[in-house]
Design goal:
The chain is of the alpha+beta class and about 500 residues long. It is about 55% helix and about 15% strand. Helix 1 packs antiparallel against helix 5 and helix 9 packs across helix 10. The radius of gyration is 58 Å and the shape is rod-shaped. The two termini are about 60 Å apart. The protein binds adenosine-5'-diphosphate (ADP). The site of adenosine-5'-diphosphate has 22 residues, from helix 10, helix 11 and helix 12. The site of adenosine-5'-diphosphate (ADP) has 22 residues, from helix 10, helix 11 and helix 12.
Amino acid sequence: MRLRLSLLSLGVLLALLLVGGAFQYVVLGPYLQRDAAAQLGTRYSTVMANELLVRRPVRSCATTGAGAVRPVLAGVVTPQYADCLVRALGAGAGQASVVVLAPDGGLVTAEPPSDYPTLPVTEYVTTAQKGPQRNHWLAASAGGQESLVILRVLRQNGRAVGMVQLGVSTALYEGTRRTLLTVLGLATGLLMLVAAVITPLLVGRALRPLHRVTEASTALAAGDLARRVEEPPRADELGTLARAFNRMAAAMQSALNLRSQSESRMRRFVADASHELRTPLTTIQGQLDLLRRGAADDPGARRHSLESMGRETQRMSAMVEDLLTLTRLDSAATGERETVSQAVDVNALVAETVEEQSVRAPEQRVDLELSGGGAPLVVAGDRDQLRRLVLNLANNALKYAPGGTHTWRSGRAGETVTLSLSDAGPGIPEADLPRIFDRFYRGVAEVSARATGSGLGLAIVRSIAEGHGGAATVANNPAGGATFTITLPAAD
Ligand code: ADP
């Protein structure tokens, strides 16, 4: 990229220099021609004003020894006078030519006498009649030498009596043009040389932040997730790139952190689940060994073994059922599984659950203090999941706080529906409170109640509440027992 950018910059520079040089070279040509013509014009005016006047005999010509020269004879400038003019105008003119012509374009005299530049006769005739029609002409001599010429008309009493053609070889100003070309060429070469040294350094310096981003990307790809690039304070493309790179690296790092956290949570969950499943499996294995070693022949022992295996199988299938429920709730939370949203009357769910429970535990006293005397209290969600939530709380109360009154309360405050179940059981030790909703967590109540839970019931309650945009909390009652509270967003 550095090489490409350097070459591109050098190419652009070269093109600009060439175009600029060509422009100067082209524009200079006409300018030099006009300049040469102006010089010739000035020489003519100076000589004619100071030295010679066609209107009267010329004194400077008279001093040549031939006596006073007659300027005009029969309406045409005389050759003597023309010689005089040529001498005066041609003096010290170098590659200049002076030609005196009659009004009809005929030659009167010329310096140099041969190989002087000539124009088509029509140009001379037109000039004699109407005056010079152009500032200057380009004329070739018989020998092929090209000159720039100007024409001036000699008049007597307003009538054209002849013409003076002053010329200078184009080689004079072409030389200037060639010199300019050489200077331009050398300057261009020199500039390109300097640019060829400096440009890669400047480009390299400008691209340095890009190199840093490349290095950081390589480090990031190799696992260095904490790698960041220095953000230049400029708001240009490279500054934006550096900031975007850092944002991307930070997002990647946090995503990977989240993933590794969730992976380690998942590993723990799987390890806990395997551990929990091993206990009933070990018991069943033991009972099978007993049966194999002869207990099968003893009807009492056989019944005991079969009952024990039945209990463990039941416990195991309940646990597998709970695990499956939790996995489904997890996939719904991460968006892998679609969630159901229907209008669910929480009060009706509680009433149904309590009625079912009264069949299983008819002696248990349950109070209902439901909002609006049990009038519909609606939330949006999955009816089966919410039924499971209510059932888990009711079963726990029955399991850990049998006997005393259980009280269901419900209500709505603003956009939140609250549902709670208070029991008069042993309550929950302070140490258990923060972990009571964790997966596989079983508290002391389980031991004293001789219950055989999986420790997944409250984890399911929390997952369902959170999956519905709500929360599950627990607190001990001042008068004893615990109160589990569920909050859910109300449906309109
Ligand atoms: P499980 O009942 O299968 O053990 P849960 O997740 O339902 O699992 O309950 C976790 C723990 O919370 C229980 O082991 C028990 O110690 C405690 N617990 C649950 N409900 C109550 C309650 N109503 N009163 C006292 N302790 C309770």
